[in-house]
Amino acid sequence: MGPGKTTTRTRRRAVPWVLLGLWVAVLALTSPFASKLSDVQHDRAVDYLPASADSTQVAKIQEQLPGGETTELVLVYHRDGGLTTADRETAARQVEEIAGAGQLTGTPKGVPSEDGTTLMYPVASNEPGIDEKLRDEFVNDVRDVAQGDGGLSVEVGGPGALATDASEVYESLDGPLLYTTVGVVAILLILIYRSPLLWLVPLAVAGVANYLSMGVAYGLNSAFGTTISGQSTGIMTILVFGAGTDYALLLIARYREELRRIERPYDAMRAALRGCGPAVLASSGTVAAGLLCLLAADLNSSRGMGPLGTVGVLCALLAMLTLLPALLVLLGRRVFWPMAPAFGSRPKERRSLFTAMGGSAGRRPLAVLAGGVVLLGALATGMLNLPGAVKQEDSFVDKPEAVVAMETLAAAYPERSTQPINVITPSGQVDETLAAVRDHDGVAGAERGRSGDGWTEISVIAKDPPQSAGETATIESLRSELDGSYLGGPSAEQIDLKDTNASDIKVVVPLVLGSVLLILIALLRSLVAPLLLVAAVVAVWGAALGIGGLVFGPVFGFEGTDPGLGLLSFVFLVALGVDYGIFLMHRMREESLSGKEPVAAALTALRTTGGVIASAGLVLAATFAVLLNMGLVQLVELGFVISVGVLLDTFLVRTYLVTSASVALRRKMWWPGRLSREPEPDPSAQEPPRQQEPVAVP
To answer: What's the angle, vertex CA 637, arms to CA 636 and CA 642, rounded to 5?
Structure first.
């Protein structure tokens, strides 16, 4: 063996160890930042509201008023048969004890209901300010004091209590979401690989990528003030494990294939990376590009999710293309035990499910394509059955105390609103604004509040119940009449969320479609194939949302849908759904470049990638299905739609529709690229060379 070969072999052995060392160094550097991510996570209303909306301006100005942000609560005392004198004395004593702690602003006054069954005490405090932990402590302290017995029920509601109950749900995302996601992915990998060791490798690498993404997310917040919320960090974790495992499945499948024809694991891994690397890079690029389009959204929660989701996908990509190959090479063929691929061996020939599917699509492509399109169109009509925007009291899967309080108030005070509308007006025109508000037909009363920095706060009580059509009309009317003033509060926030989501869809959707289409054109060197893939994922989104419309109300019992469901589900399903189209079409193009006819190339691509795509789809759908176990309706709906969409995309669209379209279009699929043209005939291949007759030598 020469010195050159020895040096090359030494270098090959060193590369995986160098990559492993670099990852250890990266984790050591990011560890201090990853552990601080929860410190910068906020779930205040201003972190979710539209950036330019009236309600956002109100929340920001209120933070600057004397005392800072106000935590508003409502203590609700109720007895079905009517409150007794002892009940009223208990309520007064408890409210006095709460006020005696010195945290309340003003003197609480009880408001009895007309039927005598309920007594409410609106209270407020400026002590917590914008600190969510202090707010939660204040709310829980009030709940500890406000207790009922002997048939007297006491609930603490209001915007502050609702925010505390929501924050408890978001806090539960950190631990249970991660553990459940890891458990689901582990079970699926064990079933897929049927190996006692192999499943641990991609799972461990995904865990490393998730930890890195937490550190990078904290850095983005420190450098650019990126919004970090419980929703965005939860989605980031799911993307790391879901998308990262998909990339791992594709790479490991190609690596196993190369190990059968290449002796050394290092060389086999290089061949695997060359083969599937472009598809993985394009796949992650489409997801990242789609998510970054959310930066154009006006809704703070959507805009903040874009960078964090992108960080999750890119960290997963980096880990799966560097750390995973290094570990697999170091572990060698034995990592596949007991089904290690031997050099020179051939996989067992067996008729797989995807071979059968490809055969049916190949025999009658137009019929299969038409049937699939009709089915997706029929499912999409379910969108007509989607309930309207979800109300605050209906946004929890299990009703917390704040929601129970809201329901009690709505039943006991049908003649008036039980939560204020906040008006912020320039201090110079406060008298004029106050008079205009009180003269409005939809207003039951208005009181002047705090003043500071040129602004004055006015608390308005509408005549109609919260989030009713009448209150909505009152808010919209006041906004049009009060020039220079802002209207906020819980009901106004819901109006702004709905309107802004409708506006964001018109901006973000074209950006997502355009960016994904450009990446596909660059990868596939075609216009027809990218347009087909984009049309397919849009159809999947419509069908998945339609299925949601059929089950959200009748099956789940949801009273409404989150206003952001349409936009977020579209971004995720288009960006993630195109992944599987890339895996399939890239292999199809590779087979075509090797000289196979279009039909053979399509069926071979389906046969070789079908199992990987099915496994990847199951993993990704299962990771998003973890959201079905969360306590907020918006997360359950988002998880359901994305999971159903991924399964439709995996087992219907990729397997049947894209394959059928490829068989039907043949070379036209690759128009206007060179694969769309018939190969030039090779005369030498058509006519074998004539053998010269031997010449006799005299």
So the answer is: 100
